[in-house]
Amino acid sequence: MYRLQTVLSAEFDEDEYSFLLTVQLEKPGAPKRRKPLRERIREQSAPRKSPDMEDTKPVKETRPTTAKSEQATASKQPYQKEYVQSERKPSPKKEDKEERTEAEPPKQKAPEPYFVTEEVEVSIRCDLSVFVCPNVYKHAILVLLITQYSPTLKPYPNFNAPDDCERLRKAMKGIGTDEKTIIEIMGARTASQRTQIVLQFKTMYGKDLIKEFSSELSGRFYDCVEALCYSPAEFDARQLRKAVKGMGTDESALIEILCSRTNDQIRQIKEAYTKVNPGRDLEKDVISDTSGNFKRIMVSLLQANRDESLTFDRNAARRDAEDLYEAGEKNLGTDESKFNMLLASKSFAYLRAVFVEYANVSKSDIETSIKKEMSGDLRKTMLAI
């Protein structure tokens, strides 16, 4: 038995089933220590290299790596923190900053849009003589049904005024009346075609077609057929005359016609009024039959001086909305003249912008404010506009 001497080396291995500990000790009385036994065994078993191969290094074969292999190798390698030393740039001197500010002029803000143009798409497929007005496209918003739906009354194909006049005369000749023929003709012709029929009937027979209808028809049916014989301007003029004639006034008729017509239409109505009622003036008749603030706004509308442009100033609309708020809800009492001035003279595009801004200022819409501040026929007129 040998006594334990100095430990020269030790190795530890393991597998699934066992542990292996190899310890190399110094042998007493042995010569000078050489390499460990295990290393010598490895050197003896390793193949010897030729002298030509001693200086050359073995070249490893390079295989193309894929993304999966790179991820696998990266996962095996231990995590290493990388510290990147940022390069600090020298701060510019004050002189350089002053030079830059002098070289570069200060940036100016782009001007905000000042004027806005309201675009209204209009597609009218009907007899435009019903709406005789060169600027009808600007106010199609007042007749939305025309812009949204295709009309049923279109120019009658193969129109022949003399033939229609002959059929109407036969329908009213003798005992009884052929109402069906009258409806087929007067209800299926456009305004311009009906105007030609009235003129042609008087030319052929020397009689007024409207008087012939009055002798054969009655009640609401006659009122409807009579209205179809007039041009739009003449029909409005006759309705306005009925509204102010005699005792009392039909304010609803005044509001409906004057608040919804364009400048050109109002001028044509005034001319037709004098033509139908010789020696009379529409404005004078309205003044004599109305009173107060309602009279003022009716007279303003009869001037036919409303701005009809589609371009408006958004900032001005905001200021006018604030003025309306101060003239109405904000203070005790109401300044009706401010509402009159705006609603009777400004374009409908501008008024729509004012109403939007008014809702932002007062937290309530313009209709609610008018209902609170106005009353009677004046309130109806303001709401109609």
UniProtKB/TrEMBL annotation:
Q: Cross-referenced Pfam families, in alphabetical order? A: Annexin (PF00191)
Q: Where is the composition biased (Basic and acidic residues)?
A: 38-63, 84-110
List the SMART domains.
Answer: ANX
Q: Which GO terms describe its cellular component?
A: cytoplasm; nucleus; plasma membrane; vesicle membrane
- From the UniProt entry, list the residue stretches annotated as the region Disordered: 23-112
InterPro entries with a match to the protein in the record: Annexin, Annexin_repeat, Annexin_repeat_CS, Annexin_sf
Q: Where along the chain is composition biased (Polar residues)? A: 64-78
**An annotated Gene Ontology molecular function:** calcium ion binding
Superkingdom is Eukaryota
Q: Which PANTHER family match?
A: ANNEXIN, ANNEXIN A7
Q: What does this protein do?
A: Calcium/phospholipid-binding protein which promotes membrane fusion and is involved in exocytosis.
Sequence similarity: Belongs to the annexin family.
Q: What is the name listed in the Swiss-Prot or TrEMBL entry for this protein?
A: Annexin
Source species, please? Opisthorchis viverrini (Southeast Asian liver fluke)
The lineage is:
Eukaryota, Metazoa, Spiralia, Lophotrochozoa, Platyhelminthes
